[in-house]
Protein 1
Amino acid sequence: MDGQDVVDRMLGEWSWSDYDLDLDQMAVSKRISLLARRLERLAADTLAPLGLDPGEFEVLAVLLRSGQAHELSPSALNRWLMISGGGLTKRLARLEERGLVTRRLAPDDRRSLLVALTGAGAGLAEAAVRAHSAATAALVDRIGTEDRDRLSGLLRDLLRSVDDTGHPTGTASRGERPADSPEQGTPSTTGAQVSG
């Protein structure tokens, strides 16, 4: 069993069956799925000592990297977060209550809001990004630079080939796409993807 992982064992259990399954495809998708779950768990464990959950971290990280003002509209935030409007509102309310973000009317359009990091929010966001980056580096650095670059390129190609619903690009009807979805291939910052 040396060199095998849980996916190899799962595929071995399928190999006896008469089902017409593409086990190579299954191996790739299952490994991506398992890594995503483990990265999400790693993110939660890393952020908990800072008093953040991965969803709150996503908001702070997007604002931190958004420029010197650390300020965006909710719709611009959501292009990266890919969550419902109600979900974003709840996250912002929690962060605002803790003094980490502020919400104000946009000066050029009083019907729109702008969300900005406070000084405390920027400090916490920077600490969280550093902690998260160190934790994920400890995992990703287990493969060499060449392999990492190749893997990143392959994952980029795969990500660009699906829309935000997970369907291969061009196969989902317009009605199946979330109303506020970003362009296909736009990354989130969470979970497996939680990153600054």
Protein 2
Amino acid sequence: APAAAEAGGDDGPAVAEGAPTGATPVEPTAPTELTEPAGEAPTAADALEAAPDVDEVSDGDPV
């Protein structure tokens, strides 16, 4: 009997996880949309520009 109660407890949480799991697929959809516009130019361009800028600034500092 006690074992059954424990098993039931495990099943309870498992069911709760099932609900969030269904929402999980929806979450990736939103981040994906934001990633596309952010990665198209702002992120990539800023990252590439930031790298050369840092090198130039470093050279300017010692000079």
